[in-house]
Amino acid sequence: MHVASARSSLNTAIQTPLGEEVYRGLTGHPKSLCPWLFYDEKGSALFEQITALPEYYVTRTERAILADYADEIISTAADRRLTLVELGAGTATKTGLLLEAALRHQQRVTYHPIDVSESALNEAKLRIETRLPGVTVKPRVADYTEGLGAIDAAGQRRLVLFIGSSIGNFEPTDAVQLLRGLRQQLHAGDRLLLGVDRIKERKLLLAAYDDKAGVTAAFNLNVLERLNRELGANFNLRLFRHCARWSEEHSRIEMHLESLVSQQIFIPALELEVKLNRGETIHTENSYKFTPEGLSSLLERSGFKPSRQWTDERNWFSVFLATA
Ligand code: AVI
To answer: Which H, E and C letters describe 260-306, residue by residue?
Structure first.
């Protein structure tokens, strides 16, 4: 009886997306965990803190580009009336700049934020509709790989926003696959606005992913806390160290969790024992950085025609407009 119930809870845990991913990642060589595992409630709050850190220039720089060029972006994209769609919108804090510009261009705007977090979408709807009465927000709780097709743009030109450097967390082949999938759900002439982080001095990149206050370290280590809580694992967080590396070869920042001792972890919900040697790491995230040429080629391989690029004065970040 006990055995039967243990088995059934084991199967249930393995069959959840979390269980499957953790099993795959920790039985693989080298060990890894997928970056989407970061974003439980605590991880999402830590990420919000990261975006305000002095070392994490990403959010601030993209916001400055949008503040300077939103009108130009909107008028370049709008060969007819626009409907805005945002993939992975979250609470949509930077989108206000584009919505305000769209309202200067046309009287009313429909905005479709797509995200897996219903609470973030509700917050976005309330905030935007209160502040910008000309905008109608139609949130959609979905994974952004599937949410686009169902959006009715009522004959208007769709401008799809994929900002915040989110594309950088995909492996290059997955990024092409994702953009191709998007392209297939769009009509010819629809637009994509992509925010991407640029290759820059190693020292700046490393500081952005290993801040002095230790918020990024807490964000990275939180994934182990999540496995303890949700799968009953027994990770001792003090026996791991956050570590950020720049890979010149792949143009990416890598985040790892390094085991400080040789140890054995047990994850009851997966009936899995994981051995880690001293110095061995669990690879938790890649954050790819681009050159304008690299990004244009990625867009072209995905079936988009790059049309314009806006950047900040230090060339740290770029916002690309492309046509489907
Ligand atoms: C969400 N994503 C674009 C962030 C990045 O910069 O790759 C995630 C992050 N990881 C550590 N700091 C921020």
So the answer is: CCCEEEEEHHHCEEEEECCCCEEEEEEEECECHHHHHHHHHHCCCEE
